[in-house]
Backbone:
């Protein structure tokens, strides 16, 4: 929940999201990053497959010294189902260019943080749709 977050409008199937992410990571990672929160600029691209399915691809870019060693890509696919509900599939790929003893731990932490972020986004979507349906 960043009050300074900004989201551009969708233009040609793409938008940009900027926010500050408070990190909930082990102290070892906080010392590597050098901060307890980081700036993130995320480029999202949407593509439609017919009228009942779309995919959002996300590529967040982190802003701290050495951030190029940490990459995350996410794909969220939403499919309308015949009963009026929808199916949501998410794929997250996290990579950390670090010595092998730390790589698995760091990537698992990155994936955990990304899952929390996606869950918050989906919760927002549910609340938004519920509010939109009110008479």
Residues:
């Amino acid at each position: 929940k960043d009050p300074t977050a900004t989201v551009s409008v969708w233009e040609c199937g793409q938008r940009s999201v900027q926010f500050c992410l408070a990190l909930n990571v082990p102290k070892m990672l906080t010392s590597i990053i050098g901060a307890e929160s980081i700036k993130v600029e995320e480029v999202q691209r949407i593509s439609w497959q017919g009228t009942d399915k779309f995919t959002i691809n996300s590529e967040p870019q982190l802003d701290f010294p050495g951030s190029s060693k940490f990459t995350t890509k996410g794909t969220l696919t939403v499919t309308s189902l015949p009963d009026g509900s929808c199916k949501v599939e998410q794929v997250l790929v996290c990579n950390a260019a670090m010595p092998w003893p730390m790589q698995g731990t760091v990537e698992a932490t990155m994936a955990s943080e990304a899952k929390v972020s996606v869950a918050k986004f989906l919760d927002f979507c549910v609340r938004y749709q519920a509010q939109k349906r009110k008479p």
Summary: The helical segments are 27-33, 100-133.
